[in-house]
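Researcher: Before we compare anything, I want clean individual predictions. No alignment, no superposition, just each chain on its own. First chain goes here; please echo the sequence and then give the structure tokens.
Model: Echoing the first chain and its structure:
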Amino acid sequence: MSSLRRSSRPPKARSVLKTASITAAAAVAVPVLAATGLAVADWLVHSDREQRRAPNPGIFHTQLDDSDLTIYTSGDELYDDMIEAINAAQHTVFMETYIWKADEVGQRFIDAFNAAAERGVKVHVLYDGFANLVVPRSFYRQLSEQVRVVRLPVIGLRFWKGPIRHTGLNHSKILAVDDHIGFVGGYNIGSIYADYWRDTHIRAIGTGVWGMQHSIAQLWNELHAADDQIEWSPPRDWRPTVQVNANLPVQLVYPIRQMYLKAIDRASKYILVTTPYFIPDQQIVQALVEASERGVDVRVMVPKESNHVVADWVSRGFYGQLLDAGITILLYASSMIHAKTATIDGEWSTVGTANLDRLSLSFNYETNVEIVDPRFAAEMENIFETDSKHCEVLSSSDWRDRHPMARAVEFALKPLRSWL
């Protein structure tokens, strides 16, 4: 009977279905094949390239009404201060991170967490499972039984109840100690990030730490039963100068994208953005374009070559639209730049873990601080100007004259924009 039904389908309908199936398969296969080819070619060309040490603009300090802020552009100083904070902890240590390498830097954190737990400090640690697939599980098993640990799975156990809510990567990088001192920014944990990546992290001492600690507690409590929750603690100030915006996919909460859109819409003088992966949705692109068209000096700094060649090529698909709008594109050439920062009009700034891409703004667990303060903005501008000295400015003429094959690759990868 089923064969009779199939044969009764008109030839034209079968032809249309076959054509649609072939078109759909090609739409999936072409970008996947292009991405695979790029990744293989990049590995063959650069597998033996020498790592270049990242420039270090320095450490910067500012004093706000309710918080002391330190801006780090060197992993060595950052890790030293993070370990010092853990070693001095008296009550609680909360950490959330993306990549945690099994090297000497990673081992320092293992030892510090174990020592804190041994002296009675409550230690809670969350790290991402997907990002650390190549790290031996034996490395994390060094953590003592007193250290509470969660390895966030690639796909949550309740995936079937809501795919979007239970598939976000844990991309946040936060350390909060004793409800008093907190660190957040782009630095993962590992030696390579300290020496060879140009990144930015901040330390806050004061009321701004509550938001960092609370974002970790929210994720922990979503993953644990009522008898294993991190206790709520009240904020010390209802209106801290350091505002924390945290994506929480399990609750379908994504405030960082809206934070960027609101700030860009307010800009009247200049917008300085640094991001390692620039694959925004059209609302973000349009906001930047409209700012430039109303006379705002918009500058976007990205790596000349990042650690993800496919992301680089997908990002290049936006360059023409930005350049046509008068936006300046700066290609950081000295090393891999991984900072996720922005500063606007000498007033507003953000530092955090979110890239300007769809994964960070609409999918992953992320945390950015938002600071409205001229003194902090001035330091962020100093860092941007220092980084700009290591950049190549992409001109419209150079971009228009790129090889036709490059245009073809950009076009082939266009479908990946919605997934990266």
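Researcher: Okay. Second chain, same rules.
Model: Second chain and its structure:
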Amino acid sequence: MTGLSVTEIEAESARLAALRMQMLEMHPFWGYILLQLRLTVSFSVPTMATDSVNSIWFNPEYTRTLDSRELGFVLAHEVCHSVLESTARRGNRDLSKWNMAADYAINDLVSGITVPGANTRYRDNATYLYRMPRGGLWKRSYHGMIAETIYEDLCRKKDKSPDETYVDVKLTAADGTELEFPHVPWGGGCRDLHLPLELNEDQRETLRERIRAAVENYQASDSRGDIPGDLLRKIGIMDRPRIPWRRVLHRYADTILHQDDYSLACPNRRFMLHDLIVPGHYNEKLGHLVVALDTSGSMDDETIRAVLTELLGMVDSSQNITLITADCQIQQVVTGEELEPFIAAGRFQGGGGTDHICVFDYIREHRLNPCLFVGLTDLYSTFPARKPPYPVLWLTPEDHEDPPWGRVIELPKEQ
């Protein structure tokens, strides 16, 4: 039984929902993962618990004791269990020490999540988005370590686990199934409850697909916020992902073309009711897209038409796309109502060498001021010494050179 009223329970649910949206806006990688997990009230867990795949259960009597930064920390901690597959990685290790090691590693990671737009040169409390509640496991000597390394250190030092109690847990899964876990060890304090669950191969693949989609979400947001890429590669969860270029292109371009910036100077008012400061968008308007097509012969016409059609569908072609075709010099400049028939005809002039300096010179001389530049090329080219003052996206075949600047999306051979 609980002494909380329905209103108080609903208020806690609303606070967690607001923190979830804060994470999605400020840290799209983490927020995407959290969005896949159902937030469910449970008075059976002392604090919080997750099955890593479908649900996070929280006890509102516990969450009410935390301020917003502390609650965000514990919520992000649960997301990390999902992202890092901490349950599946335990293997035959001692359960108690492995749980400690996982918590040390995760708390170190969450402690380093920063506020977008904060001055990270001088790191202080205002730099970090969350604050670890009192009693959380953290050691400076474990900074940057993975759980496996921390576990070995705990075993060498014969560190004792914190005093544990045992709780009987009854939960309702996302599909309505009733779950019972008798006599689950719990370390007390602010530590979350580690459920004795084993993930099957399908569930692990679900998590990995989710991580790949979260990476797309991060890339599409112009790499806003934090992502534990090095850590994921260390533990073998994230390789170089093959991602659908159409989806990435739309997410990336839509983010840039429909807003000019993302700033703490204009906080999002939706979150102020919950005492959360979230950067807001300003100067929201449709931007100008400049597309440069390399006609030197490195890309086939079918791929070119597919990409140009995707780009054309993103914006109002009569006002917001300029298409420049060039090899070692400008060949054609097409805008407005001419674009659609030009793309359909597929007659792209050129065939000489490749030089992108003339393209960027044209953009500067004609004061096009694009919101986004998209270049279709294999990048075997020459480029200006200085990066232009606007986002640059390269769409390339799999066999390509590395550009001096800009983001690259590879176009697979099979379309």
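Researcher: What stands out in the second chain?
Model: The chain has two domains: 6-241, 286-411. Additionally, Confidence is low (pLDDT under 50) at residues 259-265, 281-285.
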